[in-house]
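User: quick one - fold this with zinc ion bound?
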Amino acid sequence: METPKQHQHPKYIPSVLKLKCPHCRQGDMFVNRRSYSKGFMKMNDTCPVCGQPMEIEPSFCYGTGYVSYALAVAITVASFIAWWVIIGMSVHDNRFFWWIGLNAVLLLALQPYLMRLSRTVWLSFFVRYDKDAASCNIANSHSAAA
Ligand SMILES: [Zn+2]
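Assistant: Sure. Structure tokens for the protein plus zinc ion:
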């Protein structure tokens, strides 16, 4: 049986990866949906679905630096393991240095997305998911319009 979309409860990890508001997990955090376009860091002031403010206090976004660092470390560890398993490491050739170079390129290429992801993750540490957030706001706006 199919469930209508608004009654599904989006999971934490997919909603964070899709840069959704942590309160309702449906509204977009950022004005632009694409990470690789001009103005990619422009955030909505409030969630377009539930009205959650995206910056809950002044200079709130400083904490995203820690998340961004943790993500970079996680990707580096993952790429090291992948390289080790697929290509292998040796002290007798340059494979280790190739990995360092390619990992740097990978991190640079992912940077725009990682910056957006860090903000989404950071906000999600402070804003709890409310499964009724989306429907409540829709109900409120309907009664306000009537
Ligand atoms: Zn929301």
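One thing worth noting: Residues 11-145 form one domain.
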